[in-house]
Amino acid sequence: xxxxxxxxxxxxxxxxxxxxxxxxxxxxxxxxxxxxxxxxxxxxxxxxxxxxxxxxxxxxxxxxxxxxxxxxxxxxxxxxxxxxxxxxxxxxxxxxxxxxxxxxxxxxxxxxxxxxxxxxxxxxxxxxxxxxxxxxxxxxxxxxxxxxxxxxxxxxxxxxxxxxxxxxxxxxxxxxxxxxxxxxxxxxxxxxxxxxxxxxxxxxxxxxxxxxxxxxxxxxxxxxxxxxxxxxxxxxxxxxxxxxxxxxxxxxxxxxxxxxxxxxxxxxxxxxxxxxxxxxxxxxxxxxxxxxxxxxxxxxxxxxxxxxxxxxxxxxxxxxxxxxxxxxxxxxxxxxxxxxxxxxxxxxxxxxxxxxxxxxxxxxxxxxxxxxxxxxxxxxxxxxxxxxxxxxxxxxxxxxxxxxxxxxx
Length: 409
Prior knowledge:
This is DUF4929 domain-containing protein. By secondary structure, the chain is α+β, with helices and mostly antiparallel strands. The protein contains eight helices and 23 strands.
């Protein structure tokens, strides 16, 4: 799906409403569109203390003081709060921020999706430019309890290699920056050259760890990119009204599973992160099959998408979906072939689809970067760089990730 820059959209709304060529009309007669966007991560655990930041942007600065109400729905039980829900814009001011903070009630057992939009304003010509944003609040970060065997391995690493691996376990701060290639920047990412995501990953010692090789598993928000992955997946499938939902197979599947954005769940894990103590490097690329059973080198992300789980259930039951063809309703059995023909919302079908060990796009200049990982207990960091793409991308996006180890470890 192609996206228009927020600022361009706002100016377009303002110009159309005011017939921009007419200089005699004052700004009070023009529709001043107000857009909301999430700054960085749209996911937050209920025990998170950082919050989610929203950016509020008017198409143009008002000539007098104005107020705008921000409305949140779906927040039954007061799971979160906004630091202020009435914004006071002074004359000449067109931007503001709102912080969504957890009330730390620790009551959620499943993720909760909230909607936030522009509400009442002090001026009838100041109106919402879009439907607002959605954020997801997840239950308290589930930090796995280390077994006695895992603790023994960790003690062994300390004796053998001189580092305390617990500095990288638990809830670890992460910052990820995704730099977009030129074509995708304009086509998919609102003209932005990059996006930055700050948050936390939950990391534990993998079951694949041995006495010689520490292996990590990221059980929540791996590489800090869960929110980004989910956003891209939805844009390419269940929320793509330009392509996916226009073709009959995709639309039929979405209708059959009764897709509900407010109720869906999405999560990601990442295993096989092997630390090499002798060099400080990290091996994190594996060979795996893609959805067409071709072998590719990739990061072994494992996705859970509740909507896709229901699609698989339809397939396993041999269910039938119905499509309009030439004025007639035709039934099709949900099979792997049907899904590959256009009905699949499998994250593996849409996310990270190309080999990352080599440049498969051959763009000039190349947008491929060599995957690398490093850890340094003296500096207190663990870093990754790798290329990443999605179905119909014009090239690789470049991902750079930095983890900050726990202090005092």
